[in-house]
Amino acid sequence: MDKQQEAQQSDARPVLEGPDIARVLTRIAHEIVERAKGADDVVLLGIPTRGVFLAQRLGVKLEQITERKIPVGSLDITMYRDDLRMHPPRALARTEIPGDGLDGRLVVLVDDVLFSGRTIRAALDALNDLGRPRAVQLAVLVDRGHRELPIRADYVGKNLPTSLRETVKVQLAEEDGRDTVLLGAKRSARGAQQ
Amino acid sequence: MQRHLISAADLTRDDAVLILDTAEEMARVADRPIKKLPTLRGRTVVNLFFEDSTRTRISFEAAEKRLSADVINFSAKGSSVSKGESLKDTAQTLEAMGVDAVVIRHGASGAPYRLANSGWIDAAVINAGDGTHQHPTQALLDAFTMRRRLVGRDAGIGQDLAGKRITIVGDILHGRVARSNVDLLHTLGAEVTLVAPPTLLPIGVETWPCEVSYDLDSTLPKSDAVMMLRVQRERMNAAFFPTEREYSRRYGLDGDRMAKMPEHAIVMHPGPMVRGMEITAEVADSERCTAIEQVANGVSTRMAVLYLLLGGNEPAVAHPSPTTTLATRRSAPASEFRTEEK
Amino acid sequence: MSKILIRGAKVLGGEPQDVLINGSAIEAVGQGLSDEGAEVVEAGGKVLLSGLVDLHTHLREPGREDSETVLTGTRAAASGGYTAVFAMANTFPVADTAGVVEQVYRLGQEHGYCDVQPIGAVTVGLEGKKLAELGAMHESAAGVTVFSDDGKCVDDAVIMRRALEYVKAFGGVVAQHAQEPRLTEGAQMNEGVVSAELGLGGWPAVAEESIIARDVLLAEHVGSRVHICHLSTAGSVEIVRWAKSRGIDVTAEVTPHHLLLTDELVRSYNPVYKVNPPLRTERDVLALREALADGTIDIVATDHAPHPHEDKDCEWAAAAMGMVGLETALSVVQETMVDTGLLTWAGVADRMSVKPAQIGQAKGHGRPVSAGEPANLTLVDTEYRGSVDPAGFASRSRNTPYEGRELPGRVTHTWLRGKATLVDGNLA
């Protein structure tokens, strides 16, 4: 990380801290159980990288609430992106579909930030090739607005009105060593900012 | 930056590991109900085969189709090529039809290199076997198979083949598979031993980054994988070995020899196998033989190569100097020399 | 008669002198010469050599006029400082009869850029089976004295023996293209480290050396002389050195490209480096230079082998073998032999003019630069350095391995029997 990036990151201000994130996930878990009437057929699919960790955490919370095993998997959308031709090819992440598959289940996609909606569109395309869920829902930690496609989230941890000049960076303990959501000025290090 | 895959020697360790890791993800597509990805939608790939090789061609074709590329198969037999049209004209004709990549199989060593470096065409060139030179995707699928079996499917991600002992047995002289494998396995940190009768080893093999042995039996106990290469019966007529029987006695792999290998060691074969020549049916059909797996892995590996070369706006696999081969990496002999060196 | 006064030329690289040409002959050589009516050429320290003689040129006419003709080939020769070239027999039809050799000879005389001395085929159709009418070719207007199946080896030991014996009757010489055919089936390049990596069929040194060894022994046995074309390996040098020490009447040539280039260049798969015999290793190159310096190898011959663009603009295996060489030979020899201190300019004149003329019996060529001798001369600007631009070639073909390479030396003037064929680098 060069000096400029560091400086920009230090400008970033936290909008959610560790305890907030835990609380938000607990709420989302309860909402899922409520809307899915017990979450009997729920499958959680996280979108790499951080969506996978959020899905795993949600899965744990759902299991605590329902006292049942909740299938959790991951869905890499790289090969379905609509901007492939605009960048060098990206390394692929793992797609892991839980053993019983997706057919007839309620799939809840989990991602860290909802922004343009293009990632979710790619995820819906990918799902299409993997099975036929009963329904698909979307859970995100942060919805920062600026949708470019007619996509909305079913479960939102925090609505965060942002300017296009700002960046939202989610950090999770599993990947980054701590839990936080940072709102900062545009163009610092690439990665999980959206 | 080039957009071609001509020689296994052009791949760095990181390139090769990225391809293998990507292939591991591609392999999972084969387990899905819909074995298809939209990644190369709208891209056109031509399989330009100047030599018959149904296996390699359908493997590439399956990989291209699974990535949703438009595929044109061009077989030189019965085409204008057999009437004297040159490689250059053929390639330019195809490119005029809007081809993004050319997968080329050619009997002349260096033909893919020429195609990629002569300014004849702009399309990406993937070498699907040229003469007795290189067959890089075969080496990649072999390395992929070794990593899965010897390191592990998940444990292998991000890993190379450091310290693995690989023995390659058979016709090294006429074999592009052996050349590619020596280059790639060396890059991946494996220790390679070539075993063949001296007649089937090229002059100059002593400069390759591998060991050479004429004795199979002493090599087997020290092998994690033994790769048997096809030996064409016709070689007998050119005095490369006296008889088929003598060849298989000295260099063929049978059940007794396989028993000398460590328990975890695997037997590999790029196919097509000549049963009774370099490999007995007992070995070919055993659990330890990965020949069929290699075919399946070929599709995943070629998907990975196609994705990494064509999936973005520029390739993810970097190329060093196009002429880099195994010897130039170790030392750089002067290609000509001037007065002051005299 | 026209007179030309060349002022201040380093004759064979010596102290500057003046040379006066009167008509077709040299009238005087000395300091401070003057002649009122003479056209003056200020040499300004350039080196004056006897006109170069190439014992190994492919002019391609008749049959492959798309790659070279006698006219374009002799213009290329004049540009390179040559006053006589020996035209190889592998034309279509093959130069295996008096008719074909006379035609080539006459074309050379008509164009007037350079004497063309045809080489006759040893065997009918270069097929190695039946002796061609060597005597008839010798007695023709072309007066053939050198016979070669170049491009193919006279590999049958009996045919070779008979040819060596037969030409003794009229003082001819057989020039052998030494290549054992069975050892070079499918050969694409030098067999060694590079061929092993590139997967190109190997052309082993032993395929050349075994034929040379056989032929020097045959020459000794029948008491004839033999000339070895384009010797390319360190082992061949050893054999020729041994044969000469035994008193065997053998002469040998080396090409400029074998003095400079190695098989490492083949890594580019660029067929411009495809040639027969193939480019060898650094060790071979150094041995060839040393052998040319010490006289084991007698002469430099170009093996000028023009090919049309399409025969090189293809994959390696499909490409034709050969390189053009007439217009770059002297520069390569300066680079590899003179600038390295291995050979003086007098030595260059010996290896590129005197000896080839002797071997081929080219009358009036390779003579000393002195009064009374024919005015076959070439003037070289040895201080020049420039990169090779094939677009400027007089040859019809452009298949040079030196494109873009900086080489020293430039021929500025060539005189054929007193007539300028090249003036200030421009063909007359």
From TrEMBL, chain A:
It holds the Pfam family Pribosyltran. It catalyses: UMP + diphosphate = 5-phospho-alpha-D-ribose 1-diphosphate + uracil. A motif (PRPP-binding) lies at residues 107-119. InterPro entries: PRTase-like, PRTase_dom, PyrR, PyrR_bifunctional. Its EC number is 2.4.2.9. One of its GO terms (molecular function) is uracil phosphoribosyltransferase activity. CDD domains: PRTases_typeI (cd06223). It comes from the Bacteria. Keywords: Glycosyltransferase, Transcription, Transcription regulation, Transferase. Residues 16-159 form the Phosphoribosyltransferase domain. GO terms for biological process: regulation of DNA-templated transcription. PANTHER family: BIFUNCTIONAL PROTEIN PYRR. Also displays a weak uracil phosphoribosyltransferase activity which is not physiologically significant. Regulates the transcription of the pyrimidine nucleotide (pyr) operon in response to exogenous pyrimidines. Belongs to the purine/pyrimidine phosphoribosyltransferase family. PyrR subfamily. This is Bifunctional protein PyrR. It comes from Streptomyces dysideae. The gene is pyrR.
TrEMBL record, chain B:
Residues 3-147 form the Aspartate/ornithine carbamoyltransferase carbamoyl-P binding domain. Pathway: Pyrimidine metabolism; UMP biosynthesis via de novo pathway; (S)-dihydroorotate from bicarbonate: step 2/3. InterPro entries: Asp/Orn_carbamoyltranf_P-bd (IPR006132), Asp/Orn_carbamoylTrfase (IPR006130), Asp/Orn_carbamoylTrfase_sf (IPR036901), Asp_carbamoyltransf (IPR002082), Asp_carbamoyltransf_Asp/Orn-bd (IPR006131). It catalyses: carbamoyl phosphate + L-aspartate = N-carbamoyl-L-aspartate + phosphate + H(+). It comes from the Bacteria. One of its GO terms (molecular function) is aspartate carbamoyltransferase activity. Its EC number is 2.1.3.2. Residues 163-309 form the Aspartate/ornithine carbamoyltransferase Asp/Orn-binding domain. Keywords: Pyrimidine biosynthesis, Transferase. GO terms for cellular component: cytosol. One of its GO terms (biological process) is 'de novo' pyrimidine nucleobase biosynthetic process. Carbamoyl phosphate binds at residues 55-56, 105, 135, 138, 271-272. L-aspartate binds at residues 83, 176, 230. PANTHER family: ASPARTATE CARBAMOYLTRANSFERASE (PTHR45753:SF6), ORNITHINE CARBAMOYLTRANSFERASE, MITOCHONDRIAL (PTHR45753). Belongs to the aspartate/ornithine carbamoyltransferase superfamily. ATCase family. Catalyzes the condensation of carbamoyl phosphate and aspartate to form carbamoyl aspartate and inorganic phosphate, the committed step in the de novo pyrimidine nucleotide biosynthesis pathway. Heterododecamer (2C3:3R2) of six catalytic PyrB chains organized as two trimers (C3), and six regulatory PyrI chains organized as three dimers (R2). This is Aspartate carbamoyltransferase. The gene is pyrB.
UniProtKB/TrEMBL annotation, chain C:
GO terms for molecular function: allantoinase activity; dihydroorotase activity; zinc ion binding. Residues 45-233 form the Dihydroorotase catalytic domain. The keyword Aminoacyl-tRNA synthetase does not apply. GO terms for cellular component: cytoplasm. CDD domains: DHOase_IIa. This is Dihydroorotase. Substrate binds at residues 58-60, 90, 276, 307. It is an enzyme of class 3 (hydrolase). HAMAP family: PyrC_classI_B. It catalyses: (S)-dihydroorotate + H2O = N-carbamoyl-L-aspartate + H(+). Belongs to the metallo-dependent hydrolases superfamily. DHOase family. Class I DHOase subfamily. Catalyzes the reversible cyclization of carbamoyl aspartate to dihydroorotate. Pathway: Pyrimidine metabolism; UMP biosynthesis via de novo pathway; (S)-dihydroorotate from bicarbonate: step 3/3. It comes from Streptomyces dysideae. The active site is at 303. Zn(2+) 1 binds at residues 56, 58, 150, 303. Binds 2 Zn(2+) ions per subunit. Zn(2+) 2 binds at residues 150, 177, 230. Its cofactor is Zn(2+). Keywords: Hydrolase, Metal-binding, Pyrimidine biosynthesis, Zinc. The keyword Magnesium does not apply. GO terms for biological process: 'de novo' UMP biosynthetic process; purine nucleobase catabolic process. Its EC number is 3.5.2.3. InterPro entries: DHOase, DHOase/Allantoinase_Hydrolase, DHOase_cat, Dihydroorotase_CS, Metal-dep_hydrolase_composite, Metal_Hydrolase.
